[in-house]
Amino acid sequence: MKRTNLILIACLFISAFGQSQEPISDADYKALLEKSPFNSVYPKNFTKAADAYFEASMQIYTKGPIKEKEAHLAALATSAATKCQYCIPYHVSQAKRLGATEDEIKSAIMIAADVMRMSTMFYGNEFDLEKFKAMLKN
Question: pLDDT tens across 107-116, in order?
Answer without folding.
Answer: 999 999 999 9
